[in-house]
Amino acid sequence: VEKEDRRPRDRVEEKTGSAKLLRWFGAAKGKVIVGGKVEEGILMEGAEIRLMRRDLELGRGTITSLQSNKKQVKKVEAGAEFGAQVKMSAEPAPGDRLEVFAVVFK
Length: 106
Description:
By secondary structure, the protein is mainly beta. It has one helix spanning 2-6; strands spanning 11-28, 31-44, 48-53, 56-68, 71-73, 75-77, 81-87, 97-105. The two termini are 16 Å apart.
């Protein structure tokens, strides 16, 4: 049993949601503001994200704030439109996808 505890665990990224970007509003000081629609799962404030264009990863970041229907929210579910401020250096474009993931150790 002790040997089992000391074995290194694998770091796995599990996709928890995705969204299509419909609009890019601007960027300042390493943060970008985007609008889009959640296609599956949930987007949550503080979540880690990957910015994807087709099958290419352009960058990674963190959702720092979310809005839906002009109200600050903590999460946005599938089918809903949202506005988000994302901390990242890559510059998104309409049509790109945000993939939300959780890091799990197995």
